[in-house]
Design brief:
Layout (H helix, E strand, L loop, with lengths): L3 E3 L10 E9 L3 E3 L2 E5 L3 E10 L3 E15 L6 E15 L13 E2 L2 E3 H12 L38 H9 L1
Antiparallel strand pairs: 1-9, 2-5, 3-4, 4-6, 5-6, 6-7, 8-9
Length: 170
């Protein structure tokens, strides 16, 4: 399983490209206090390294499937994503920080770290079991997908009646 790729060993000249597939380990994610597991825990990632005159263009692509609870109803949810990442690594050690990839150190590319961060950037705000998930009832906690229902309006506490009258008059 490849966690790190030695870019120096590729020996690319300007304009040449190296393309290969690596098994990259994927880590679980914690999102909104819930844990989401990648299934399987490794991804067949395609890495393309293209040598430019002043640096290297790095491209990573792989599919990932995450399993965990739905944000609304807590039932099992699965999310399929296609991850694509692109980085640039300048050859000059004096180059600006923007021209250096945070995943390359001493000409070694950290595939696992890059895959983790690229996946995190692709995650939606909420992982749902289905797009129209109704969630849980705020009063009784039942799953509204299985048992759609409404509750009668609760009677107000009589101790607050004087304030309710004042609100109605204003």
């Amino acid at each position: 399983m490849a966690r790190v790729v030695n870019l120096r060993s590729l020996r690319l000249r300007s304009g040449e490209q190296h393309r290969d597939e690596y098994d990259v380990p994927l880590e679980p994610f914690e999102l909104g206090g819930q844990r989401y597991l990648p299934v399987p825990d490794t991804a067949a990632a395609e890495l393309a390294v293209t040598r430019a005159s002043s640096g290297m263009v790095l491209e990573l692509s792989f599919p990932v499937r995450l399993h965990g609870p739905c944000f609304r109803c807590l039932e099992e949810a699965a999310l399929d994503l296609r991850i694509r990442g692109r980085e640039y690594q300048a050859l000059s050690p004096d180059a600006d920080e923007e021209l250096r990839s945070p995943y390359v150190e001493d000409e070694r590319l950290d595939l696992a770290g890059w895959a983790r961060d690229a996946t995190a950037l692709k995650l939606p705000e909420q992982i749902l079991c289905r797009a129209d998930c109704a969630g849980l009832c705020a009063i009784c906690g039942r799953n509204l997908n299985d048992e759609p229902h409404e509750h009668e309006a609760e009677a107000t506490d009589p101790r607050w009646a004087a304030l309710a009258d004042l609100r109605d008059r204003l």
